[in-house]
Amino acid sequence: MTDGKVVFVEGALPGEIVLADVIRRKASYEIARSVAIHRPSSERREPRCPHFSVCGGCVTQYAQPRLQVAAKQRWLEETLSRIGGVRPDIILPPLYGPEWGYRHRARLTVRHIAKKGGVLVGFHERRSSFVADMDSCEVLPPAISALIPELRTMVDRLSIRDRLPQIEVAVGDEIAALVFRNLAPLTAADEGVLKDFGDVSGAWIWLQPAGPESAHPFHPASGPRLDYTLPEFDLRIAFLPTDFTQVNHAVNRALVSRAMKLLDPRAGERIGDMFCGLGNFALPIAVLGAEVHGVEGSRLLVQRARENAVRNGLAGRASFAVANLFTVSRASLAEFGRLDKLLIDPPREGALELVKALPDTGAGRIVYISCHPASLARDAGVLVKTKGYRLSAAGIANMFPHTAHVESIALFERPGSRI
User: Does the pLDDT of residue 12 top 90, yes or no?
Assistant: First the structure.
């Protein structure tokens, strides 16, 4: 603390003595950046990535994994208390997965920089729109990391190298897809270069000339399905490379497993899966014997969820509908029919209108998956203070190791029910 203000120091760990420069001043706090570590913490370690000092990703990899997770758990608890005015009865043990090679989704930026020798492919530099000069990435699967130098060479050969701003990576259990955002048509020579790259790398090549719905397979024109498995529930969930899926397959499996234990679906129950996406949570609910009704704003994702239900033999217990849950009202929510329990998995904005629309009597149990502690805390305040729920349990899932991203899960129950 300096001059009565809290100072947040980037690059420092609790208990360390550091030399730091202030980089931003606010009325009630300051942000500084450490420039020298005089007394390091026992929880400090050498960053594994050779691009750590430049790349803007994985900025906390100098801290041991347990410390990273403890900080996220503490941040969740503090945010629930500060914004929502609520505290969980039980703190759930954190969910871990692999800390390296975990990232099965990524958006790589592409830039042609002549003074740096040609094309750069990678993530942005810290606090910058520039692309880091990198030839590997420790959090991408090794096979994808190894493609970065080859992607740089290949894109440099294209006539549209200045009109190709990004490559989206989507990795399934068996294959990987690369979606090239092409802002100009490919020449015949360009098509040959891309096809050769796909043949050698084994990647499924897609093109996206406009918005996400314009994405289409290029080479091969049709190929094996992208999918991931949830072995505990004997499920295989197919997706397209532009669909939303969790980046960390291992942590997603653990998160689904915990969600099902907290939700406790039972035969005879009708459960709502709000913001259901591809059916990541809806289909395990159906496997466990309950009837599930999934609701999602994206028509394409609802179509995919229905297809996944059919492929997994669950169409009889899983139904899906398209609806805008950001404008839902009590009347429109009632149109979904009886819902004994709810699973809510919204984007960063949270589910404020949905929780405000919940009837004063209804779902006895809600499992809320969140990717943003602040919106979870806000919605938790509504559920506890105006809807009569108690926050029975909450905890984090380390979906994005080495980053400040906090994925969490919370259980809300009506009085009288038990975990």
Answer: no
In this structure, are 256 and 373 located in the same domain? yes
Q: Residue 226, Cβ neighbours under 10 Å: how many?
A: 21
DSSP type of residue 157: T
Residues 31 and 88 in one domain: no
pLDDT of 360 above 90: no
Q: Which of 55, 58, 137, 371 is catalytic?
A: 371
Question: In terms of residues, how long is the chain?
Answer: 419
Q: 87: domain range?
A: 72-98+244-413
Torsion of the alpha carbons at 333, 335, 338 and 343, rounded to the nearest 10: -40
- Is it the case that residue 125 has pLDDT exceeding 80? yes
- Contacts of residue 368, Cβ cutoff 8 Å, sequence gap at least 6: 343, 344, 345, 351, 376, 379, 380, 409, 410, 411, 412
Q: Is this structure's pTM higher than 0.85?
A: yes
**Do 201 and 286 belong to one domain?**
no
The residue with tokens 């190298």 is: 161
The pLDDT of residue 19 is 86
Extract the tokens encoding 305: 């969820």
Domain membership of residue 59 (yes or no) is no
Query: Residues 110, 149: one domain?
Result: yes
E strand or H helix at 309, and its extent? Answer: helix 299-311
Instruction: Quickly count: other Cβ atoms within 10 Å of residue 8's Cβ.
Output: 13
Give residues with Cβ within 8 angstroms of 70, minimum separation 6: none
Give the CATH number of the domain where residue 203 resides.
2.40.50.1070
Q: How far is CA 158 from CA 139, 148, 186, 195, 219, in A?
A: 27, 16, 8, 12, 16
What does the pLDDT read at residue 273?
98
Residue 55 annotated to the active site: no
What per-residue confidence (pLDDT) applies to 10? 76
pLDDT tens digits, one per residue of 161-188: 999 999 999 999 999 999 999 999 999 9
Per-residue confidence (pLDDT) for residue 94, from 0 to 100 = 98
Closest-CA residue to 324 (of 303, 343, 298): 298
